[in-house]
Structure formats: structure tokens, C-alpha cells
Amino acid sequence: MANVNPLAWPKGVKLLCELCQQPALVQCTKCMVTYYCDTDHQKADWESIHEIICHLLVPLRTLPAFQCLSDEREHQRVQLQQRQKQLIEMTLSTAQLKLSKGNPGEALPAAIHCLRFSTELYGINTIESVPSYLLLAEVNLGLGRLMQAEEYLTQSQWVIMKNPECSHVLHQKLCRSYGLLCSIKGDLEEAIRYLANEVYFASEEFGCNSTAAAGGFYHMANVFSQQGKTDIADSFYTEVISIWHTVLSKMVKVYNAGVDSPNWRTSPTPDTEDISHQLDLFDEAQRAEASQILNSILDVQEKATKQEPDKICRTLHTLAMLHYLNTDLSKAQDLCSKALLVSHQVPNLDLTGHIESFMQQMQLKPS
């Protein structure tokens, strides 16, 4: 995997480390086009993203034949652009997934590559490179590197301000990162302002009852909790659970329809068309983030001085549906059983019947 023989390196080329841009001393022996300052950086890159993209880098970093026709050169240029776009998507999704699972250190190399590929293809100060800057800001926030995070956010904000047509999604992500940065710094009022703006942009793009807006509500609840405003925090946590419970209930219904009816995709109804699209877009990173948010709220509810069984029951049911969509039937059934026990503490709770019905559905599914 490593080659430390300087004679094997290309002559007349200044080799820099993939991660830190310091002089390179180690070469990847698989692709032969990637270099590192030491084996620690090589290992970190391999575990983060390089193992996935190693073979894709060879044509990107190999000079094309000089004696080729103009049509062939144009064809090669288009192919390289497509390869770069593919690498941007792969590094972005990989970093987001690792970040959602609480591994910002593992996400960092993939995020660095994402920015490099983006700026090589689109340029440094382009709107297309902003998602990469925002990703690196979020990764550095997770690592506690506030100065680096703020630098990436400042760059993102500058580009966004120069592009009035910038999407609500980028505004939303910028506001979230600034809100989290202010929260970590202890500037809680400013954090609330940014996170409220995040909810606004998410609602404009996806609707006020969307899971994107729920993310903003969740982070606002955490800030209110830091301020000691537990009643306000609880109301926001309740709103987050309500949104996720509604969305996941619809997803489960559509998912079951897909399992039971082979034609549900080709002949969708108005009720299933939109939610089936959401189900398609509900990728692993989003599921990991949802799991982290819902489990965090459940922990707050179960540790509260005055527990509210109806809210705990709804959160458990929401988590059960999430695990069901992740095809983890054992965990979903376990959570449903806990939710059912809690529901018996609340007389005439409407949710009890839904949980019982859901458990019956799961018992009919194969493991």
C-alpha cells in the first residue's frame, strides 16, 4: 500500500501530501498517483475515502496522449469532467455519512478531497464549491477546530452574498453551521437567531413540517436547554418528534405498499407519489442523523425530573419506524414493545392502537 522509494516518483514534479499539502514522502502503490507526507496520513485517507476512489484517480491524474485529434481531446475532457463530478458526489456523501455517525475525524479526509475536486472543476469562489466549504466547516466544528470552521463559513458567506440567486438550501446550511458555531462559543442569543433563520430557509424550500425544518427546531431546543429554558426546549423537542412521527408513518405506509404491490412505483396515487420520492431520497446519512436526533431527545425525556409517558411513547414509536425502514426488525420490535408498555401508563392514548397494529404488521414480515 505504501512506497517510500523516491526513485519511483515522477521527476521534475513537486509532490505534495493529499491531506496537508506538505512535501510527500509516501506513494500509494495501488493507484501510483497519490502521495502523502507520512504513513499516518496515508492510513487516515485510506480509511476515510481513498480505498473507495483509488482506482478512479488514475485517469484523472494521468496526462492524455499528446498526439490525439481534437475530437478525441474534447471527448477526454468531457469524460474527465464527469469523473470529477462523480468524485465530488462520492466524497461529499461519504463525508456526510461519517459525520452523521459522529465520526468527524474520519470525515475530514473525504471532505478535503471534496473541496479539492470542487475547486479544480468549478473554481475557488463559485457557488458550486460552497457545499464543500460548508461540509468542511461542519467537520471542523465536530473536531472542535472553531477557527478553521469560521474560515470556511466566512468563505461560504462571501460567495453566497455575491450570488443573489443562491438556493434556500445553501442559506439553510450556512445558518445552521453559524448557529452551531455560536452555540459552542457561548453566544446563545446569536445562535438562536441563526437557527431561526435556518428554519425559515428550510421551510421555504421544503415546508414548515419537513424533516429539514425539524433539524433547525432540534438545534434551537438544544440552545434553549443551555439557557435553562426547559419548557421552551421541551416544546421544540415535541415539535421535532411530531414532524418525524408524521413523516415516518407515511413512509412506512408507502414502504409496505411497495412490499405488497409490485406496481406501486409505476402506478402511484397522489397520496403516495410525494412520500415515495422522499423515501427514495432518505439515504444512509439522513437515517443516521435522524437516529442521532431521536435518540438524543429520548434520552432527555427519560432523564426529565417529571416524565411524560405520552411523549416518551411517541418517541419510541418514531424510533421503531425508523429502524423498520432500516430493515432492522428486531430493534423495531423491541422499541415497539417498550412503547406499548409506556402507553399503558396513559389511559385512552390514541397511539396505543397504532403501535399494536404496527407490531402485527412486523410479525408478518420475514426477518
Task: Write structural notes for this entry.
- The chain is mainly alpha-helical.
- It has three domains: 1-59, no CATH class; 76-166, Tetratricopeptide repeat domain (Serine Threonine Protein Phosphatase 5, Tetratricopeptide repeat); 242-367, no CATH class.
- 71% of the residues lie in helices and 2% in strands.
- The protein has helices at 39-60, 70-100, 104-122, 130-142, 146-161, 168-185, 188-206, 211-226, 230-260, 270-281, 284-303, 309-325, 329-343, 351-363, and strands at residues 2-3, 26-28, 35-36.
- Strands 1-2-3 form a three-stranded antiparallel sheet.
- The model has no long low-confidence stretch (mean pLDDT 89).
- Keywords: Metal-binding, Zinc, Zinc-finger.
- Residues 17-54 form the MYND-type domain.
- Pfam families: zf-MYND.
- It comes from Erpetoichthys calabaricus (Rope fish).
Give the helix tally: 14
Q: What is the rounded Rg?
A: 24 Å
Which assembly state applies to the chains in this document? single chain
- What are the low-pLDDT stretches, counting only 5+ consecutive residues below 50? none
Classify the helix fraction into a percent range: over 70%
Largest sheet: 3 strands, antiparallel
Structural class: mainly alpha
Number of domains: 3
Write the H/E string, N to C.
EEEHHHHHHHHHHHHHH
End-to-end separation: 40 Å
Tell me the number of strands: 3
Q: Strands of the biggest beta sheet: in what spatial order?
A: 1-2-3
